[in-house]
Amino acid sequence: MRDGISFARKGIPAVAIVSTAFWAQGDFVARSLGMPDVPRVRIPHPVAGTGADAMAAVAESIADELIAVLKLSTP
Amino acid sequence: MTSTTRVTMLHADSEHDAREALDAAGCTDGLPVVIPTPERVQRMVLATGIDADMVLGEIGPSYGVATIEKVAIAAVMAGCLPDCVPVVVAAVKALCRPELDTAEMQATTHAISPLLIVNGPAREWCGVASGFGALGPGHRANMTIGRAVRLVMLNVGGARPGVSDMALLGHPGKLAMCVAEDEAASPWEPLHVSLGYQSDEGVITVVGTEGPHSVISVSDADDPSSADRLIRSLAAAVANLASNNAHFHRGTVVVVLNPDHANVLSGAGWTRNDVQQRVWTAAQHRRDVLRTYNPAFAGNGADDDLLPAVQQPTDVLILVAGGGGLYSTVFPSWGAGGHGNPYVTEVIDLGQACAIPSIS
After folding, report:
1. pTM over 0.90
2. pLDDT tens per residue across span B125-145
3. By CA distance, what is B295's nearest residue in A?
4. How far is A26 from chain B, CA to nearest CA, in Å?
5. Nearest CA to B152 among B279, B231, B83, B67?
6. Which ipTM did the prediction report?
7. Are the beta carbons of A29 and B107 separated by less than 8 Å?
8. Residue A28 distance to chain B (closest CA, Å)
9. Which of A10-24, B16-30, B204-218, B286-300 has the lowest mean pLDDT?
10. Which long-range contacts (CB under 8 A, 24 or more apart) does B267-270 make?
11. Residue A45 at interface with chain B, using a CB cutoff of 8 Å
12. For chain B, does the N or the C end have fewer beta carbons within 10 angstroms?
């Protein structure tokens, strides 16, 4: 989340990918750092350690949303 | 407490109602608190000898501004005696130092919390225990100093479990983890003197650690291997293959020797530096061994590379505390954060402190 905010502050389009278990924390960090609307996309939890096939499926499932959000945040 | 220097005044019909309201608002550590009435807070501020609105710094993850007044509020809530508040102030100054990575320490899923180590005259001034059971119940200064620091982390730093403090389980030391070094029982100079301070300075050393891990070692005056065995036992805990340090190879690990164990090592002719060096050297694992536990962290080097639990011997902090006996204690750590989990020190300024009667 903070990485996404750091990129956004530099004017570089960025989307934070946040798992459901950390969604509330993402909101908290975004508010604390003064960028409550910084773009983010939700993925299931856990992803790490679920295996290459499962991770590829998650990536596939969010690809369109990720690109759409990136386009929105591109100046 | 907010992200500004201002504080919010709440109203309640009774102390009971106030306690319940603070708990419902998430402003407590889960235990009943002393209500920080304006009178109590003003007296605690007075005990610091510093202006209420003096800013000590910011604490993440909410980046609240830590003022003397907010620290005093936390100290009142924690049940601190006024004599202890200079230690709390020094600890909060440490938390505001960037190298401690307090925001990340609070947010991580790892079970890490600041261990507060008190040296010098502040030990007597504040009554911080260093002997039998010093980290356990029954020592008001230790418990309330540690608790006040945690309340600052909660209410100024904004670390709330499951939202902004993502520790998966945490540990009880997150409530309070404060101990003094037993300088009189140590065969070596006090820790803060080894770190470059004068013996008559009060110093707090703050480092994020896990909870205490017990290390058993039975020494025998007739057994010349006693000191070596003790070093290997300590190193086994420092490089515990389930710890972050073993796999990340950095951070600060704290070794609290009981006085008997300290005397065994000193009796072998070893200084504090010698012990640091020996523990560090023994706390290493081969890469192929590490790979069998956590291949994701093992890297691509040679199988027979020896990888240390922390970067250098000085990352093993050695102090003496607790009762004499078979057990010493190791605090493994996190080994993460932008600065790699170092310790930081701050002077405890007793020169400003003002002795005032106990707060009712």
Report:
1. yes
2. 999 999 999 999 999 999 999
3. A49
4. 8
5. B67
6. 0.81
7. yes
8. 7
9. A10-24
10. B267/B227, B268/B227, B270/B227
11. no
12. C
